[in-house]
Specification:
Sulfite Oxidase, Chain A, domain 2; five-stranded mixed beta sheet; five-stranded antiparallel beta sheet; 8 helices; 34% strand
Length: 341
């Protein structure tokens, strides 16, 4: 069975957490127990995402454009509003049975690609959301169709419960082909990043930076088994290759002290929340065997942004304290903290 995608949403009318699992190439539907687990994870992730920002506090919200671009940038909310003047009127995936359309207003994805100087060989672009969700589109399609990062709907700001303040929408009405190419799950809520292609691997450990060559020079390790990644990943076991977290920290010359902790930070706000950090206890590292993976599959291809690459964190299930949030995508920073005195 392959789960094509898993989405954590806020219900438009009630603000309730929903989970949508799109199942393809399945011989049987997921078990009731598996659906219950996915629903519980979705609820927990939605609640965690909701705590990261208030829907009436958008002035601090921003949009980062990164990846294979000549001019990476983080647009402050005032800049997003100034640029977000293009209208796309379309049937909404949030209300698919309605006969009316919604007038969305925002920034065309293709305009952001041009503004950032997207590399000609960047075939995909991935939006990343507050809750860690990703939606990947072909850059050729983004140029052919008017995909929009919407900030207003029918003249009003888009609240968090409806996918705002930045909501990726597709022009179903004017370009019916997009309904087939990019169905409902590609309408991404509360977008914070647009990653063009896949970024070059770069990892910061206790303030020291490592590029791809430096990471690949470390002792290599692998992971084989069930995993906790969502969106695009197969639900079956996976083979990953990279460097163990312990070896990466050793390469940085940082000692690990008993009762200390290791904080993992990713690109998505849910993986970079100071109030609720992703933490592994130093005393658990030998059992959990966390791996910083750069390659996936039996052919060990680089992990692309579609899957949360170039670097993801995998680990052997070892304790109930490490749940779905600990399967971190877009890993960027590691901090080691000594045990309290």
């Amino acid at each position: 069975m392959t789960l094509a995608g898993l989405r954590y949403n806020g219900d438009v009318h009630r603000g309730m957490a929903l989970v949508v699992a799109l199942v393809s190439a399945c011989e049987s539907r997921p078990s009731d127990a598996e659906l219950d687990r996915l629903r519980a994870e979705a609820n927990a992730a939605n609640e965690a995402a909701a705590k990261l920002f208030k829907e009436d506090k958008v002035t601090g919200f921003s949009l980062t454009v990164a990846g294979q671009v000549a001019k990476p940038a983080t647009l402050a909310w005032a800049e997003v509003e100034a640029l977000g003047t293009t209208h796309v009127v379309t049937a909404s995936a949030q209300n698919p049975t309605a006969s009316s359309t919604t007038d969305f207003e925002g920034i065309l994805v293709r305009d952001l690609l041009d503004r950032a100087g997207a590399a000609p060989d960047a075939a995909e672009a991935t939006v990343v959301s507050v809750d860690g969700f990703r939606a990947t589109v072909k850059t050729a399609d983004a140029r052919a169709y008017r995909m929009l990062l919407a900030i207003r709907a029918n003249g009003a700001p888009i609240p968090r419960s409806s996918g705002g303040p930045i909501f990726l929408i597709h022009p179903f009405t004017e370009s019916p082909k997009t309904r087939e190419l990019y169905p409902d799950r590609f309408w991404a809520f509360y977008v914070t990043h647009l990653v063009v292609g896949t970024e070059a691997p770069k990892l910061t450990i206790q303030g020291k930076s490592f590029d791809r060559a430096a990471i690949e020079a470390m002792p290599q390790a692998s992971f084989d088994g069930p995993h906790g990644f969502k969106v695009e990943w197969t639900s079956d076991s996976v083979h990953l290759r990279g460097v163990s977290l312990v070896d990466a920290i050793a390469a940085a010359g940082v000692p690990l002290s008993p009762r200390g902790t290791v904080v993992i930070r990713g690109k998505s706000p849910i993986h970079n929340d100071p109030a609720s950090p992703i933490v592994f206890a130093v005393d658990d590292l030998a059992r959990c065997k966390p791996l910083l993976a750069l390659q996936m599959g039996l052919d060990e291809k680089p992990i692309t942004a579609r899957f949360g690459g170039p670097i993801v964190l995998a680990f052997t299930p070892c304790s109930d304290r490490y749940g779905s949030r600990h399967w971190v995508t877009f890993v960027e920073d590691i901090e080691i903290k000594a045990a309290p005195p």
